[in-house]
Amino acid sequence: MTLSPAKTTKLIGRGQQKSSRKGERGVTIFIVAAGMVSLLAMAVLAIDIVTLYVASGQAQQAADAAALAGAAAFSSSSFTSSPLTVPQSSVCNGSSGDADVRAQAIAAKFKIGGTAPTSVGTSCNFTEVENPQVTVTVVRAGLPTFFARIWGYRGSTVTATAKAEAYNPSFNAGSSPSPPIDVSGVKPWLVFNCNKPPCTSPQLLIASNYAISDPTLIGQPITLRLITSGTDPSAPPPPLPPPHIAFFYAIDPPAPVSCPSPSAVSCNQIGTGPPGLFYHDNIACRGTAHFTCGQIIGPGQPIQVDTRSLGNLKSRTDPGTECLIHANAPGPTQGQDTFTTGVLPVTIAGDFNNPNPLLRTAASISRSDSVVTVPVFNCPTVGACDGTAQLPIVGFLQLGIQSVVAGDISVVVLNVAGCDPSNPGVAISGAGISPVPVRLTR
């Protein structure tokens, strides 16, 4: 059969179309495969980026915590109170100082990419700023990458830096405004601003410029001696031999909170009254009253001097203090934590009654229930501070309690923080047990 030219042309066209379509076979698969490779590459890259991002955040957390721990060392040394009397290297030298060791120990507890930091560097600034500062740099090298190694990339490094300082109002009293301290959990012992009786011409704990008057007092033992309303500590009996005597009034703030169990060591008298008198409970428990610079203690004020007899106050001071420090009985070596004296920085050793079993018999610990804050007052005039006058708070002491016997409390001076009561500002809350707060600055 003979085909017409028209039919022949149609058959040829169909053949060409079929041949063209055969050449396009597999193109879609190639496009899909190429797209999957691209998507997989982006997903792989995202995994590595997220890994590095998370590790960077972990490194910053480690640096922040380490810097705060290092700055806390300033709160238990004389370096927040000018002038300095011991080498700064004893607190921070970039390797073995108290601030260095604390920062390194805290940073080592953090995991960055699953393991501890590769290195932790510390440095301190005592001279260029008003408040002592510690800078911590945390490095984690060799972070594993899951897929970047395909391109020959073997590992990454993340670095984080944080800076913290101990803020001392003694240094900042001249600033405008100068924030007063607002401390909670203060013990009900109102200490007279004198450290070496007789005090008719006081040698002050806190000088007129609100700095520590005698820097050599830091790390030294003193005895807090209980007196009663009607007794003027500005003209006490002749002083006893060292350690020095600092006189204090018992004060009666509102009822405290967070009291220990009556079954705890020496705590069976806590919460036993008399009703409305919370002096000894405020020793053993956490107080609810907030104390500020310039606050007045005395008649007509929310907080007043406890007017009970000396015998009644002593009978409450001893058990309240023994409960606080976990001592079995009056005097030293009764299971309470101990403090070094005469050497800076002061170190704390846990003893067998420490409520944390891990801290018992530990040679050096960073906190203790025996560390307390107490307010300091000035007499309106010499000879006019017998407990019936209006007594202004001019600062705070941080003390380590060694023991108590018949109302006499043996302590080690850890820090002195003065403040300007005439210069108001936004209150700063103390860092837990310390009247000197620490804060991150970067």
Q: What are the main properties of this structure?
A:
six-stranded mixed barrel, 24% helix, 442 residues, alpha+beta, elongated
Total domain modules? 2
Biggest sheet descriptor: 6 strands, mixed, barrel
The shape, in one word, is: elongated
- Low-pLDDT stretches: 171-179, 429-433
SSE series: HHHEEEHEEEEHEEHEEEEEEE
Q: What is the straight-line distance between the termini? A: 96 Å
- Helical proportion? 10-25%
Radius of gyration: 34 Å
> Biggest sheet, strands in spatial order?
5-7-6-14-13-12
Q: What's the helix count?
A: 6
Description:
This protein is α+β, with helices and mostly antiparallel strands and 442 residues long. It folds into two domains: 31-166, no CATH class; 172-433, no CATH class. The strands form four sheets. It has a six-stranded mixed beta barrel with strand order 5-7-6-14-13-12. The protein has a four-stranded antiparallel β-sheet with strand order 1-2-3-16, covered by helices on one side. Strands 8-4-15 form a three-stranded mixed β-sheet, with no helix packed on it. It has helices at residues 5-23, 27-75, 98-108, 169-172, 279-284, 310-325, and strands at 119-125, 133-143, 156-166, 181-184, 189-192, 221-227, 244-250, 290-292, 296-297, 338-339, 348-349, 371-377, 391-405, 408-418, 428-429, 438-440. The longest helix has 49 residues, at 27-75.
